[in-house]
Specification:
Length: 210
């Protein structure tokens, strides 16, 4: 029986330009409850290149989707370059072995997305622009039966908004597929890592529960 808490942390591509990104991440992880942190890198500016190609000449949705998924391997390696002491894993079987003990792993999800994710129960990720790295990380959190899911971004949603995933998707703060996963997701948090100390907010469950 697994006793270690698993915390899946999606690190938004908008944070990649922070010169002290490694220090901020280590500082944040150090004050969290003990867990195995699974770090998933967002697509950042690389995905924006594919979006520009799509604007110039409409790409097939599935082709654009898999280009962006493959780019998450590049950004995972970028994150590993910034955090070389954290192992980079691209095999979900090895990841499942590692999460049984405290520590951290950077996960490159492209292989898992192609070979394992489509066969999983629950909300399937469509091969379209409606699926972003937020939804991929959320799907991974469900697959790993993680106890916590964290979305690190450069801003938090406005305080005047209801922090429910459906409302956040309507405001285009997250993608609509992640909102569909709401019933299956573990407790979900947003972190603005640009702030020092980081700002944190918890997603409200439908019906008002946390």
């Amino acid at each position: 029986m697994r006793e270690t808490i698993v915390r899946v942390v999606k690190i938004g591509g908008s944070l990649f330009d922070l010169p002290d990104l490694p220090e901020r991440l280590w500082k944040w992880m150090a004050v969290q409850s003990p867990a195995h942190h699974v770090l998933v890198a967002g697509g950042g500016k690389l995905v924006n290149v594919v979006r520009e190609w799509d604007r110039q000449k409409t790409l097939d949705d599935a082709a654009a989707h898999w280009m962006c998924v493959d780019l998450l391997t590049v950004t995972a390696h970028f994150l590993h370059d910034r955090l070389p002491e954290i192992p980079l894993v691209e095999d979900d079987r090895l990841l499942c072995q590692r999460v049984g003990q405290q520590g951290a792993t950077i996960f490159g999800p492209a292989r898992w997305m192609r070979h394992s994710e489509p066969a999983l129960p629950g909300v399937w990720l469509p091969s379209s622009w409606s699926t972003t790295s937020d939804a991929i990380a959320g799907r991974l959190a469900v697959a790993l039966r993680a106890q916590e899911f964290v979305l690190m971004k450069s801003t938090l949603p406005p305080r005047r908004m209801a922090w429910e995933l459906s409302a956040l998707a309507a405001a285009e703060y997250i993608d609509p597929i992640l909102a569909q996963m709401a019933p299956d997701l573990p407790p979900t948090w947003f972190v603005n890592l640009r702030k020092d100390p980081p700002e944190t907010g918890r997603v409200v469950r439908p019906g008002g529960g946390a």
